[in-house]
Amino acid sequence: xxxxxxxxxxxxxxxxxxxxxxxxxxxxxxxxxxxxxxxxxxxxxxxxxxxxxxxxxxxxxxxxxxxxxxxxxxxxxxxxxxxxxxxxxxxxxxxxxxxxxxxxxxxxxxxxxxxxxxxxxxxxxxxxxxxxxxxxxxxxxxxxxxxxxxxxxxxxxxxxxxxxxxxxxxxxxxxxxxxxxxxxxxxxxxxxxxxxxxxxxxxxxxxxxxxxxxxxxxxxxxxxxxxxxxxxxxxxxxxxxxxxxxxxxxxxxxxxxxxxxxxxxxxxxxxxxxxxxxxxx
Length: 281
Ligand SMILES: [Cu+2]
Known about the structure:
By secondary structure, this protein is α+β, with helices and mostly antiparallel strands. It folds into two domains: 145 residues, no CATH class; 121 residues, Cupredoxins -  blue copper proteins (Immunoglobulin-like), CATH 2.60.40.420. It is built from six helices and ten strands. The protein starts with a helix and ends in a 5-residue tail after the last helix. 17% of the residues are buried. The protein binds copper (II) ion.
């Protein structure tokens, strides 16, 4: 018998006798220590979910948000990160544990016990990903539904028109005449918003698909020709924030910028009045 034949013989014996009494059974191989680690990860996960959003890091989100809907978005983001890290920790443990502690030792011969046709394990690693996808889907769908809810009677309404390669803001508050600001790539427009008052946005496009993105809102929404996408926010913090297009829309896409300025309601009213009178800055 050649060496190759001998090895093949050994392999055949090992794979055809998975419950060989010389080694531990598949169930015994699933030792207590990895189980303890998994339980520790689960306990940490439960502990983290008990923390408030403010206690947790933003996980590379640029800010904590300046609108009423930002906390929900940040919370969804943080939850997704925690779940992904927990899954990563469990996966890394399951990979590294056998790699380090179940290496082949001197004197070991043949293959370790094989775990083919281990139905409980196969059912487990089929069900767990399905449960994970269902959990992610549930929280994402729930929050997306709430984030995109709009009121029938918002305090103000603004139509945002995206066009290659700038933005146009049309204010239609208080049932009065619309006032419009149109920007250019060389002169980015400023979107004025009142602090503490609800603003419903309607996004329309004159040409191609753009994306209305204000990083400080922790939110962006596509601007699609022939479709009116809407969302509503109440700005909470005074200040000036950057806005940009987040959809590659042509050669000057990178110049499709604007500013968002959150001011007091009085300043907002006087700005709209001066805009209608043709005296806006
Ligand atoms: Cu663009």
